[in-house]
Amino acid sequence: MLQKRTRLVRIGTISIGGGEAVAIQSMAATKTIDFESTAATCQHLADAGAAIVRIAVDSKADAEALREIRKRTTANLSVDLQENYKLAALVAPYVDKIRYNPGHLHHSEPQKSWQDKVKFIVQVARDNDCAIRIGVNYGSLDPNLSHGIKSHTDTDIDRVINSAIEHAEFIDTLNFTRYCVSIKSSDPATVTAANRRFNELRPDIPLHLGVTEAGLLPEGLIKSRAAIEPLLAEGIGDTLRVSLTVSNDRKVEEIIAGKLILDNVRKGTIHSGIWKRAALNIISCPSCARVENERFVMLAEQIYERTRAIQDYPLTIAVMGCRVNGPGETDNADFGIWCGVNSVNLKQNGTIIGTFSYEEVIPKLLNLIEDWKTNIY
Ligand code: SF4
Predict the structure, then answer these.
(1) What is the pLDDT of residues 244-297, one digit of tens each?
(2) Which residue has its alpha carbon closest to ligand 1 atom 2?
(3) Which of 140, 197, 319, 364 has a CA that sits 20 to 30 A from residue 159's CA?
């Protein structure tokens, strides 16, 4: 497998780009403040072949836990920042890479420009020997770019790419080169098209490939293969993650799936690139430290089971694990669900239906789907 030669970016003990082997990544889904379990997960994933393991950090307590995690694992660590970009300064001494999402920089300190916030993150990375990932996500775009996104048309793909290009160009002006880019979507065709186009525009920048909210097995792997294998076969992509909705103890399956994809590309048995799905499309997040109730994975599995009878209906159901990303990431679905500590939020076509217990929400969803069925024909 011969990857196009992007710039070499060192992340802890490994490097991506520059002709290096494609690195497989995963993410810990344990609570970050539970530093012993999180460190054990990171080490387990690294031992299974994860070149980089990502950890979500949302609070000072999470940031402090990173210090303990660092002592307990040799894994290369990446930190996932949400709105509070300033936490980068607290965690950078203990990690090898900082991932920020351009769409999340607008929420805290709205009076400050995104450029000032990126300058801050870049300076922190420089001072602490960290790389950066600009992680653009279709479901949580910069609000100035996302207006009107409802379908995966060419114009929408342009907006996603523009966000990545805008941030890359800004970081270039700071003379910082240790960064890579990811452009993710829950739609495999969008991932392929957007990354292909980005690579044409910026062939120097290493790309992190992945389908966000790919869902449970086997669909999660099928979607990831459809998106990633054609790109790798064209030499595009320097690192990848297969996001799967699996419980913590099964996270290692993301690594196994990543190895399978690399093997397929090496052997030339790649996926055609067209994901032929049943009409029903269920997207679900892989879960991470932000999940507030571990029943989320079981809920996603039950929704898959209980909707088998309507597989031929043209319906998208999005199931998300937390209240941080859930509301935004369910915007484009017909039915959206995101989980809290003891309750689950449900919306239909962007309108909130209500908040229900974990037991109530599936019957409620199924009733709404029955109503929807009677109205479409
Ligand atoms: S939706 Fe929430 S729980 Fe799921 S992966 Fe994203 S941040 Fe983590």
Answers:
(1) 999 989 999 999 999 999 999 998 887 776 766 668 999 999 999 999 898 999
(2) 322
(3) 319
The atom of ligand 1 lying closest to the CA of 285 is: 4
Mean pLDDT of the chain: 92
Mention every residue, 6+ apart, whose C-beta is less than 8 A from residue 210: 182, 184, 191, 224, 227, 228, 240, 241, 242, 243
| Among the listed residues 186, 134, 165, the one whose alpha carbon sits nearest the alpha carbon of residue 331 | 186
CA of 173 to the centre of ligand 1 (A): 32
pLDDT band, residue 145 (cuts 50/70/90): low
Domains contained in the chain, number: 2
Ligand 1 centroid to Cα of residue 57, in Å, is 12
Alpha-carbon gap, residue 224 to 209, rounded angstroms: 9
State pLDDT tens for residues 22-80: 999 999 999 999 999 999 999 999 999 999 999 999 999 999 999 999 999 999 999 99
Apex 58 CA angle, 101 and 176, nearest 5: 40
Q: Is the CB of 344 under 6 A from ligand 1?
A: no
**Domain with 304 in it:** 281-376
Q: Do 248 and 102 share a structural domain?
A: yes
Measured between alpha carbons, how far is 347 from 41 in angstroms, rounded to an integer?
Answer: 33
Determine the distance separating the centroid of ligand 1 and the alpha carbon of 176, expressed in angstroms.
Answer: 29
Looking at residue 294, its pLDDT comes to: 87
Give the domain-ending residue among 212, 232, 267.
Answer: 267
Of 267, 297, 316, the position where a domain reaches its end is 267
Say if ligand 1 is within 6 A of residue 324 CB: yes
CATH number at residue 357: 3.30.413.10
Q: Is 117 a pocket residue for ligand 1 (Cβ < 6 Å)?
A: no
